[in-house]
């Protein structure tokens, strides 16, 4: 039985730029879900003055409450 080199080669072989864009997309999805589905996180985000659509770069994540 041969071992696969990558678990998900489409993700694991991306350039740094592609990887960061993918991470940003996934983070936005998670933040949107937390904001719309959890009263706790909605209140936390509102108190911090941020909304999921405020995430434009990975560095913006530090403005969000810890999830």
Count of DSSP helices?
Answer: 3
The share of residues in extended strands comes to under 5%
Distance between the termini: 40 Å
Count the E strands: 0
Describe what this molecule looks like in 3D.
- By secondary structure, the protein is mainly α.
- The chain has three helices and no strands.
- The radius of gyration is 16 Å and the shape is elongated.
Set out the fold topology.
Layout: H1 9-12, H2 16-37, H3 39-48
Which labels suit this protein?
67 residues, mainly alpha, 54% helix
Summarize the structure.
This protein has 3 helices and no strands.
């Amino acid at each position: 039985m041969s071992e696969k080199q990558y678990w998900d080669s489409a993700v694991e072989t991306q350039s740094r730029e592609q990887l960061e864009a993918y991470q940003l997309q996934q983070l936005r999805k998670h933040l949107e879900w937390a904001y719309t589905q959890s009263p706790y996180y909605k209140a936390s985000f509102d108190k911090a003055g941020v909304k999921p659509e405020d995430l434009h770069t990975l560095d913006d994540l530090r403005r969000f409450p810890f999830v």
